[in-house]
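User: Fold this; C-alpha cells only.

Assistant: Input:
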Amino acid sequence: MKRYLLSVLLPSFAFAEDSLNSGDTAWMLVATAFVMLMTPAGLALFYGGLTRSKNILNTMGMSLGAYAVGTLVWVVVGYSIAFGDGDIIGSGKVMLMNITSDTLRGSIPELLFVAFQGTFAAIAVAIASGSMIERVKFSTYIVFAALWVALVYAPVTHWAWGGGETLNFGEMDFAGGTVVHLNAGIAGFVVAMILGRRRDYGKVAIKPFSPVLVVLGASLLWFGWFGFNAGSQLASDGVAASAFLVTNVAASLGVIGWIIAEWLVYKKATLIGGASGAVAGLVAITPASGSAGVDGAIIIGLIGGAIGFFGVAKLKNMFKVDDALDAFWIHGLVGIWGSIATAIFIAPYAMSEGYNISSQLLSQVKAIGLTILYSAIATAVVYFIASALTGGGRVDDESESRGLDETVHGEKAINL
C-alpha cells in the first residue's frame, strides 16, 4: 500500500513512472488471486472448523457471503470512498467512474488495483463475523456486511492509504494492521457485546467441530497472506520479496510463540493453538511487512503468537464478552501489537533520514486510537441499522438450540 518505502529501499525505483509494467501487473494478478483465496476458502475453513457441528455451514456461509457482498459494495461505492479524491472522505469514483482499462495506478492498471483492494475489504468484514457466529441472523449479517464495508472499512482505508492526510497522523501500515485487522477485530467485539452471549455459553462444553479443518484453513490463510503482504508493494521488486520472506518468518514464529505459551500454562501443545498462532504471527507482521527485517520479524511473530494465546486464554475471561471465534483477540489485540512493533522494529535500510522512533510510536498510537474509536461507534450504528432492517439481529431460541445450518439453510455439513 504505502509506496513511500519504495524510495527508501530501492531508490532507483522510487515512485514508479506512470507506464505499464508487465512484470508488476503479472505479479499483482497472482497476488490478487492469492488474497481472494483467503476468504471463501481459508477463513471459511478456519472458522468452520472452530465452530460447532450444527453451525458449520452458517459460519462458512458468512465468509462466502462477505466476499460476494463486499465485492459488490466495493466496486459500486467503497472504492470511491477509500481511494477517491478528498481529505476526510473520497469521492468521484462511484461505479468506477472514469476508470478504464488504460488507467494506471503506478505501474499497474487501476482496475487491477481495485480488484486487489476489494479482496481486503471482503476479508475484513468476514473476520468480524467470527465474533458473532451461532446467534446472529444470516440476513442481518449480510446487510451489516454491505453497510460496514461502505461506512466503516472504506473511510478508515481512505485515512490510511487513500489520501486522507488529516487523519493519517503519519502512520506506517504497509498491508493493513489497523485498516483490516484492528478495524475488523473491534467491529466483531462490539457486535458480540450488543448481541450478548450464546444461550449455552459457559453452561456446556463448546468444542470445535474439526481441528483438521482449522489447520487446513490456517494453511490456506498463510498461503494467501503472501499476496496480502508482498502484493501490497504493488510491484515485483525487492521490497515485495522482503515482505514475502518476513511474512513467512513471522507466521512460523507465531506458531512457536503460541505453542510455548500454551505449554507453559496447560502443558499441552494443541494443533488448534499452533494454527491460531500462525494467524496471530501473520496479523502481527502485516503492518511491518514492508519495513521490518528478518530479526524484527522473528520478535514480532514470536510475541504476536504469545499475545494471541494470552488474549484468548486469560483476557477473554476477564472481559466476559462472547467473542465466539476470538476475532478480537487474534486480530484486534495482536493488530495493536503489530502496529506498535512497526515503529520499533524497522530495518535500518528502511528508515528515512531523521527517523525518530518516539515520534513514529506516537503516530501509531494516534492511528490505533482513531481506528478503535471510529470503528466501535460506526460499527454499533451500522449493526443497529442492519438489525432494524431485518426485524432484529439475533436468531430465536429454537434456531439457536437446533443449529443454524438446518434452521436457516436447510442443510447439514455432513450427511451420513
